[in-house]
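Hi C.,

You asked whether I'd gotten around to modeling the 80-residue construct. I have! Everything is below, sequence then structure, no commentary in between.
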Amino acid sequence: MTTESFDILTLIATCKKISRSRAGVYAMLDARHPSYDPTFPRPIKIGSRRIGFVEHELDAWIVERMQARDLAATTGAVAC
C-alpha cells in the first residue's frame, strides 16, 4: 500500500473548480445525458450521502481539456 497523500474535494468545491453547477457535474457523470463526459473523473463516496473528487484527477482532466483546446487551435479543428 502506498503512503501517498490525496486531497479530496467536495462536490461544492469541485463545482467551483470547474465552474459548473451541481446539476452540471451530475450530468457529466450520467451516460444518458447529452452533457455526459466519459473522461470526467469518477467520484468517490466520502460519507453515506456525500461524494468527493480526487483533486489531482480533476487537475489532470483540466490539463487534458487545455491540451485539446491548444491542439484544436493549431490544427483548426473544433475542441469539445
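If it helps when you're writing up: The mean pLDDT is 92.

Thanks,
B.
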